[in-house]
Design goal:
Layout (H helix, E strand, L loop, with lengths): L1 E5 L3 H12 L3 E6 L2 H10 L3 E4 L5 H6 L7 E4 L4 H13 L5 E5 L23 E3 L1 H13 L6 E5 L4 E7 L11 H7 L5 E8 L2 E4 L11 E7 L3 H7 L9 E5 L3 H12 L5 E6 L2 H10 L3 E5 L5 H6 L7 E4 L4 H14 L3 E5 L6 H4 L6 E3 L1 H13 L4 E7 L4 E7 L11 H4 L5 E8 L2 E3 L12 E7 L3 H8 L3
Length: 454
């Protein structure tokens, strides 16, 4: 599939890397020779130097035969105009744009994005997606990650098997037999530096970080069996009042969680803006690295400290200070993925990488089959994909035993007629089943073929 990616930054590079490995025909456009050199040296893709929104540059990149245009430059306006040019001059079927400026995304302007105005098929707002990810973790105590699936009847959760996990040494099959009434299915495990897809004979060990799908009604019981009985936080402190901090505060305000929320913002003018736009959040103008400010917001009473400034170092240090002052859990925004593996050893509980979240949302829109959700896991390890079974696909009317799936693909669950099914080898896939899969990166193309028309 011919794809043009406009912007060779971290997100553009990562998308090009993923798609090229799945045999997409990728061309990357950027006006930076340095960024394009990195792409050329490491990826099997074509590069074009130039401004992506210029018709001549798009033409040189193969826009006449392009099927997907992904605009992820640093400029919202460039991304929007690029999609317009791609539509008006080259009739590119699918156009995806990253847009950060929140004013473009207000509900009152939703009619702006159609074929008569700005013909953008999918808009990705990293700040909003990151805020949603943080909020999901905030309302799921005991988890290290959480994603709602299958019309909110299922949750994908990540959790750590702590020292009080009493079922260590049991296999996946033995756990299923011990708790037959729980609609839950373990999909993959992170164990130290190792990441692997499970099978029925995989043993669960203490300190494993496991990822599973679980019916929402069974969530509390399953968490308890894995040693997690944390209560929902009554107070949260957000450090950083940019678009992410504001979006997260608004999500908390609109929810029925009753979490008392305080927000610290260094810039006085921005703090005043936040105070005038938030009704139930207390805004403090100050430095999140100042112990006096942390005392002023009673950080010791906080269940969560969420550091989301634009500076990784500030986020890390403020998280550590908050933990030392008594905050129970730290959630830390990290743009430099190289930091992530180091932070748990120094006291940071959970990190969020905007790049990974943005890539997941873009991949969700790129897939050729009918995808409901696509979630990247473990820095390139694989993807959780929720998709509908089409009547003319390879999967339809077959069971797992007949399909003989590779070890890198695991079926988590099926939603059929509003009921959750945890599949076994005899379970037959039916038309319109809503299925949650996990596929290691080298198996994604295989899964796409299984989901596509025969």
């Amino acid at each position: 599939m011919r794809t043009i990616i406009c912007g060779a930054g971290d997100v553009g590079y990562s998308i090009a890397d993923k798609l090229s490995k799945e045999n997409f025909e990728v061309t990357v456009i950027d006006d930076s020779e340095e960024k394009l050199s990195k792409v050329s040296e490491n990826l099997d893709v074509k590069t074009i130097r130039g401004i992506p929104s210029l018709p001549s540059v798009l033409l040189d990149a193969g826009a006449k035969d392009c099927e997907i245009l992904i605009a992820v430059t640093k400029s919202d306006e460039t991304n929007m105009v690029t999609c317009q040019i791609g539509h008006s001059l080259f009739n590119i079927p699918k156009k995806i744009a990253r847009i950060r400026q929140q004013d473009y995304l207000k509900d009152q302007w939703e009619n702006l994005y159609n074929n008569n105005n700005f013909p953008i098929d999918a808009i990705i707002s990293p700040e909003q997606e990151v805020a949603k990810s943080l909020y999901r973790r905030l309302i799921s105590p005991g988890t290290i990650d959480m994603l709602e699936l299958s019309e909110k009847k299922l949750k994908l959760i990540g959790l750590k098997c702590e020292d009080n996990f009493s079922h260590a040494g049991m296999t996946v099959r033995e756990l299923s037999q011990k708790f037959p009434d729980y609609l839950a299915n373990i999909m993959f495990i992170f164990r130290g530096d190792k990441k692997f897809t499970v099978n029925s004979s995989t043993k669960i060990e203490k300190n494993d970080s496991i990822f599973l799908v679980v019916e929402t009604d069974n969530l509390t019981d399953v968490l308890s069996e894995f040693g997690h009985q944390e209560l929902q936080a009554k107070k949260a402190v957000i450090i950083g009042g940019g678009n992410i901090g504001l979006s997260l505060a608004q999500l908390i305000e609109k929810s029925d969680t009753y979490i008392k929320t305080e927000l610290i913002e260094y810039n006085k003018e921005r703090a005043e803006f936040l105070a005038s736009n938030l009704e139930n959040v207390t805004v403090t103008n100050g430095d999140g690295l100042d112990n006096q400010i942390l005392e002023e917001v009673n950080i010791s009473e906080a269940g969560y400290c969420i550091s989301v400034t634009e500076d990784d170092e500030v986020n890390i240090l403020s998280s550590l200070l908050a933990k030392r002052a008594g905050a129970l859990v730290s959630l830390t925004l990290i743009n430099n993925g190289n930091y992530s593996s180091l932070l748990t050893n120094i006291g940071v509980d959970m990190t969020v990488d905007p790049k990974i979240i943005t890539i997941s949302k873009i991949l969700e829109k790129v897939r050729g089959v009918k995808i409901r959700n696509d979630y990247s896991i473990g820095d390139g390890f694989g993807e959780v994909i929720e998709a509908d079974i089409q009547p003319d696909s390879t999967l339809c009317n077959k069971n797992l035993k007949e399909l003989n799936l590779p070890k890198g693909i695991r079926i988590g669950s099926i939603l059929r007629d509003k009921k959750v099914i945890i599949p076994n080898s005899q379970t037959v896939f039916k038309e319109n089943d809503d299925v949650v899969f996990f596929a290691e990166t080298n198996c994604i193309k295989t899964l796409e073929k299984l989901l596509s028309k025969v």
